[in-house]
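Hey,
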Amino acid sequence: MIKKISFFYVCIFFSVIKVLGQNPVPAQEDTLRKNALKIFLDCPMCDVDYIRQNVLFINYVRDRKEAQVHVMVTSQPTGSGGRAYTFHFFGQKEFKGMNDTLVYTSSTDDTRDIIRKGQVETLKIGLMHYVAHTPLAKDILIRFNKPAHAKEVEDKWKSWVFDLRMNGYLNGQKSRNSQYFNGSVVARKVTPEWKYNFSVNYSISEDKITTGDKIIYSSLRSKSMYGLAVKSISDHWSAGGRWSLSSSSFSNYKFQFRAYPGIEYDIFPYTESTRKQLRLLYTIGYTYNIYVDTTIYDQTKEGLFGHSLDLALELTQKWGSIDASLNWSNYFFDWSKNNLSVDTYLNIRLFKGFSINFGGSVSMIHDQINLVKGGASTEEILLYRKELETRYRFYTFFGITYTFGSIYNNVVNPRFGSSGGRMIYMY
């Protein structure tokens, strides 16, 4: 039996050597690599395999420094519930200084297939400026589909968009059963001058745990209404406010009302928000709380004035991206009741084939005025059903990627799935 297995592996070894000794690149593909435009596609939200299969007149390289054109795609939500995909074309090497920007906008009910087709057509149009200067230009055929005459459509909804959402789950085994339900209604309107967002939410989470002869029931419920209105003042300034009505058994709020107007300044123009933002937001307002149980400060209800300062940085560049924010807030009645939190995410390409990503968050918490005076039971602590006293929270992560080998990645081969299928082990 051992001899048969050994012979099997020897055959596989020589078969692999034979395949590696052959030229795997067809002449047509070799010509494409030699003459076609080299691009680096930087689009985490794109179906890259679909793009490779449908845009065949270019070379896809995996290192941005090898590319003649770096195509970076960013996206932002639109007022109708779709997304605006901004294609940034950066010319490199002989095309240095030849840059362009195109935008493809999807609607809220577009399927994944419709979106990826729109992205492909936008990419093709943007690349023509560069392909025209390559030997493959003579093989490009441009076709124009004359659109039918369209009548101007009156928007009976006046730019308002509504979402009805519901989700939940059931999960069970012999000793534990869990169920969760969440429902919400969202209304929003986005115009160049105004931005409105209103929502109503309800959620419930329940657990039943059996340990021996003991049965533990646990539940969390929360309800909320939220509103936002923002007025555009200039390309750097905006003003508006938020308000909310809510209740949460986890945070000991039987009822909470918050109203915080504010003003925001973006160092970069809002028109450049897809690639860079540095926003400073200051809000000041009033909070009124009615508690489920008496708090550690012997309060059953109270009204509080406070303010907050938010600094947010978002950069998407050829070398990577940075997303960071800092928030500080406190109550006026006691400045020691404050909260400071920092969130960061970085994805950086350091050199050819090597990239790192890391980030996390940390909060210094000194404003837990809502904690229950009697504390939490053992079950509530273990199931995390009550907010517990803490002076800090933190979370961190990191990752490293190093890729080397052929710079070309034009071929798409979906056999056995993207990971090559499951590994089969022989013993």
